[in-house]
């Protein structure tokens, strides 16, 4: 066959998610604050949807817009609702007969009244809701935007004695300082890119290194620590000598070698190393601190007697219903067919959105209840009692697919008697004990951390000794696994932890 470009036709079957299914999956996977944003966006795009005010005694369309009952706890939200027929050719949900709106609206009104009666008995008092809204508004209005390190340094530059000719150089240097406070470009690189002599750049850099915080503008850790000691007037201290001449040995905690080179006792060198440890290796973080991340739990777990009660956080989810105006418009016989088709499509889209939200909440609630059921010991005792648990086990118990569990717990948090934890935290693999029971990796890691916390500083535990101590407790683990967990805990090897 001759080489070249050819146009051919092929016929094959592929699995494609319809837009409504993609929307359902997006709602399931979205955390609660993101879900609120998605719903508010849909409110703007769909005119038949309306949100009830928080102070309203009316209810959301709990009837699933005419479904008659809440979604089944065994229902997989990734599948189309049982009573909605999805037509892949037209890519829209349909219900037969589609034009029997009078009976449909009468049924909807009856269900609305039932839910209204139910929620009128369980509504939070209006005064309490108003107070909560005022507190929340005050909290968000009290938040202030932080200043970045570069902005802070530029402000200090404007107040400095730098000449107008030096200020463009200072701006260039500040622009190359990272969030930790280190200069990431060398003087040679800055000189080459600007055709400014290195001596001038060095002079401006020395001025910037006098700015706050101490150590900013350093080119490496050694210079950063020396700048901090110089700012404190400790150029003649033992710490300054150690950092200046024995930085490599200090990093490896070779205190005997440093003591021998300086002709000093090892204990004195160790005390100087302890003082060096109080210096800040990343001075820029004091100014450009990471923004606070606010977590809103999806699920609350509270103890009631001997049982644990699982409740959903519905406070941030808008309460939706189909607008009565559009229901009345559809029931009018003189309505234009084009208008009826448009409203019909929007009503069906609104129904699917409301149903998807309710299915999402029910799925998360079922999964949370199963987690609490399997991790009851954790609720009582904490991390040390965490049991191995997989998503496949929870999916089988809840009656959904494993991928549904993965989406449902993604980015979601649970408030427990032991604190707030991401729901994914409870899904861990485990190790087999000598008694045949399973113990989670998180529990083993916590046991290893406890062993290191209680070790003797002069005789730190090696990884082999940790393996032996865990085996005495019935946990069989490989040495390389201990080394992996130790590294994840940020604990140095035994030879670097030893105190002479």
Overview of the molecule:
With 500 residues, this protein is α+β, with helices and mostly antiparallel strands. Among the domains are: 138 residues, no CATH class; 68 residues, Orthogonal Bundle (Arc Repressor Mutant, subunit A). Helix content is 50%, strand content 8%. The chain is built from 22 helices and ten strands. Strand 7 and strand 8 form a beta hairpin. Helix 15 crosses helix 17. The longest helix is centred in the last third of the chain and has 38 residues. It is extended. The protein starts with 18 loop residues before the first helix and ends with a helix.
What integer is the average pLDDT?
A: 79
User: N-to-C terminal Cα separation, in Å?
Assistant: 78 Å
Show unreliable segments.
58-99
How much helicity do the residues have?
Answer: 40-55%
Chain-wise SSE layout:
Elements: H1 19-29, H2 32-45, E1 49-51, E2 85-87, E3 92-94, H3 101-122, H4 126-142, H5 149-158, H6 167-175, H7 187-194, H8 198-208, H9 221-231, H10 238-245, H11 247-251, H12 255-262, H13 266-276, E4 299-304, E5 307-312, E6 320-322, H14 324-331, H15 337-374, H16 376-381, H17 391-398, H18 402-409, E7 413-416, E8 419-422, E9 430-432, E10 438-440, H19 441-453, H20 463-472, H21 479-488, H22 494-497
Helix pairs in contact: 1-15, 5-6, 6-8, 9-10, 12-13, 15-17, 17-18, 20-21
Keywords, please?
500 residues; four-stranded mixed β-sheet
Kindly summarize this structure in a few lines.
Helix content is 50%, strand content 8%.
